[in-house]
Structures
1.
Amino acid sequence: MSNIEQTLSIIKPDAVERNLDSEIKEMFKNKGFKIIKEKKIQIEKLEAEKFYKVHETKPFYNDLCSYLSSGPIVVMVLEKENAVLANRELMGATNPQEAAEGTIRKKYGISIDKNSVHGSDSTDNAKIEIDFFFKD
Ligand code: CDP
Ligand code: MG
């Protein structure tokens, strides 16, 4: 049975700053993702804090929120069969040093904090995150 899903992807400031957004979008398209919605924005730190609220108790939370709001990002809704998991696979491990060959983070990630992309980690969070950026 088919299971078409949508997931939220963010191209983070380190990648947008290096003009990697087109190349990263090509990687998504080559894997069969459709880019349903897309916008380039810069968010306030307060918005980043809301977006990453699940990490609020983590030691990296403050730096993470400063970083996500530090420059332009590209936010996308991606669609494909089992999109949530497929996107996590294409992104690779959180730490680029541990990411598999062929993944976005292996190819473009600089460090665990500057790891070039965000992707929803479950279908429930995908809905919440898509609404966060695209509800109007
Ligand atoms: O992004 P992902 O779902 O793979 O990882 P996460 O555990 O949900 O963490 C969110 C983001 O926090 C990561 O993508 C990293 O940018 C950052 N992070 C960090 O700076 N230092 C860590 N030790 C762990 C995560
Ligand atoms: Mg996560």
Note: The chain has one domain: 4-134.
2.
Amino acid sequence: MEGDLIITGGRPLNGTVRIPAAKNSVLPLLAASLLCSSPVRLRAVPELADVDTSLQLLQSAGCEAGWQGSDIVVQGVPGVCRLGADAAARMRASILFCAPLLARLGRAETVLPGGCRIGARPVDLHLSGLAQMGAVCRAEGERLILTAPSGLHGAEITLRFPSVGATETLLLAAAAAQGKTVLRGAAREPEIVDLAAFLNRCGACVQGAGSSTIRVEGRRSLSGCSFAPMADRIVASTFACACAAAGGRVELTGCAPEIYRPLLEILEQMGCGVKYGPESVVVSRFGRLHGAGKVFTGVYPALATDAAPLLAAAMLTADSESSIEDVVFERRFACTEGRTLCILPGTGLKGANTAAPDLRGGAALVIAALAAQGKSRVTNTALIDRGYAGFAPMLAKLGSEIRRETRPSDGTEKKRH
Ligand code: EPZ
């Protein structure tokens, strides 16, 4: 999907949203499917640009990977160790496809991964962990070449920071390595738990996912399975913040509020109504929104860094001060030099022309536009499409005035939702 988003703000949101599967679970699961010797089916996957990029990576490795309705099916043994450079450069998560290739083929070649420009985002933790498991990693310009001449072996690894991606890389490597791996200082995000559940369903032996110590016994081969990835807590957070900013009442179903509770608690503190169910939540805002004071992001179970720009957009509509410090990424907020964004009460948002700086920053601009008086245009929407499928129609269904507008070269305007 291309095209600008045109939003006329000032309308409250009302209705129900079913939260789709999580991008940040689906991408590692697609990487994990490279370890499986029989077909993998991921059920009800949203049509995201990053999912398409992942399919291209799987195809470049020699697998058959494609859509069957809303499911994705991956089959075939990877036979090519070099990942498609265009696809790999486009997305940070491309690095996750290396460990399985290394485990199965003894070699993986890629380019340094791209992704949202929200900080330096090195891959040293991925590489040093793999090196402890027997891999030799070398960079040649933008290319990254990993070899494991004698295969991967289990190791005792301690991460200096609980990186989500490095934990996923090392889980994938350990599941197929020879012997036992103990990973200390691991990330505890729910997407790690989902990856471990998938691997175990395929015959792996992973214990302790969701805690900071994960133990894995390597297996020679894994089978495939049919798996429904967990719900997207950041998409749920997006709609919760949109309701806080624009007002109204939105029910978010299919996503346990537990996995984004810190965000919901801050919204409650700001004056929103939040009614918790086991797998759903109702967020409402009819009165004024107040500032949240000082809040911080952190690694799970703290407030997610990906939710910070979304919350900031809601804070823009509050009648008193808020500040958010992001301790995970040093350039999370494109509009400030430091890690802390301070938001003072203003005289009300007005529609504007803006460009998405990155995925969550782009979604935040949409939220702000929903709350603003008048018309806004958000360009650079390909960045938003990386993580939101059907964002505009979902918001339109809740009563927002939002549409996609393509600007073909002949000057005629095409509209689509
Ligand atoms: C994952 O990125 C998510 N992406 C990000 O979501 C999310 O913001 C992030 O985790 C934190 O929750 C996917 O799951 C595909 P990290 P990842 O490794 O794995 C430093 C979104 O909008 N670090 O936990 O790249 C790094 O620089 C995206 O959906 C190293 O120093 O995050 C950062 O400061 C954006 N060396 C911190 O750790 C390493 O080798 C956290 O990064 C790896 C990371």
Note: The pocket of EPZ is lined by residues 23-24, 27, 92-93, 116, 119-126, 161, 163-166, 305-306, 328-329, 359-360, 387 (CB under 6 Å).
